Amino acid sequence: MNIEHAARYLDDAAREARAVEQLSTSTPFPIEDAYRIQRASIARREARGERTIGVKLGFTSRAKMIQMGVDSLIWGWLTDTMLEEDGAPVDLDRFIHPRVEPEVCFVTKRDIDRPLTALEAYAYLEAAAPAMEIIDSRYEAFRFTLEDVIADNCSSAGLVIGPWSRRFDGLRNAGVLMRFDGRDVQIGSTGAILGDPLRSIVQASRLVANAEVALPAGSLIMAGAATAAQALTPGLHVQCVIGGLGQVEFTTRRHG
Ligand code: OOG
Ligand code: MG
Question: What pTM did the predictor assign?
């Protein structure tokens, strides 16, 4: 597998909002190469002026593993151009086949440069917020192998973050509700995320330490979806409510 070539293939597909064939169809490749391709595609974004703002975890809940047929935890990078404003309209034109999923987002207050224990994790957190991730696989039919999805920066495409708070207490088992136009489309619990979304900090610290990178204070950590993802269409009002944390919302539109 040519890492640079693969990174460009996926980066171009994302920029042109064009679905492409899975990389593994022509050449099977190992997980280590998948993370190298991911890293090279982020380097391309950085060369264009994008800034990394944190990391996301994927497949931290059974609901997501079952929906996508993948059973290992994965991680990818978030950049500043992925951020959408709470309450604002999101343009679907730049996506291929976007889906949305309810998540908890954390922001750190200290640099993370080594694996943390569950007891330590709390002291590294500034705040938590209700959030939604917009995922958009660059692969045809939203289908992929574990290696393919990692290479594709774990389908990262957008995120919307609600109000920050320091109410971590109830997070272990808070109700999660996602609504389209006022209708419930996904119902779950934050406990579905690794048994407790705070564990995502421990996992993220291990993963970045393994990759020999550090997460600076002020980084975002998206804990992973609590429920399955839901396909987005234009003209929707999308809302996510998390018990104790509050709510976050956006609308969708299409120009093209
Ligand atoms: C991969 C990303 C998974 C999550 O929260 O589990 C993910 C995908 O489902 O396309 O973001
Ligand atoms: Mg996600």
Answer: 0.98
The mean per-residue pLDDT over the stretch 149-176 comes to: 96
**pLDDT band per the 50, 70, 90 thresholds, residue 255:** confident
Distance 76 CA to ligand 1 centre (A): 10
Predicted pLDDT of residue 89 = 98
Q: How far is it, in rounded angstroms, from Cα 251 to Cα 256?
A: 16
Domain spans of the chain, in order of start: 3-253
**Nearest residue to 233 (alpha-carbon basis) of 185, 177, 190:** 185
Task: Please indicate whether residue 55, judged by its CB atom, sits closer than 6 Å to ligand 1.
Answer: no
Q: Is there a contact between 115 and 209 (Cβ–Cβ < 8 Å)?
A: yes
d(CA 223, CA 46): 23
136 Cβ closer than 6 Å to some ligand 1 atom: no
Question: Residue 42 is which amino acid?
Answer: I
Q: How confident is the model at residue 95 (pLDDT cuts 50, 70, 90)?
A: very high
Which residue, by CA, sits nearest to atom 4 of ligand 1?
Answer: 58
Give domain 3-253's CATH architecture. Alpha-Beta Complex (3.90)
Residues 242/249, Cβ–Cβ less than 8 Å: no
End-to-end CA distance of the chain, in Å? 35
Residue located nearest, by CA, to atom 8 of ligand 1: 155
Return all residues near 69 (Cβ < 8 A) that are at least 6 apart.
Answer: none
> What is the predicted pLDDT for the residue at 90?
98
Mean predicted confidence (pLDDT) in 37-46: 98
* 132 within 8 A of 101, measured Cβ to Cβ: yes
- What local confidence, expressed as pLDDT, does residue 1 receive? 82
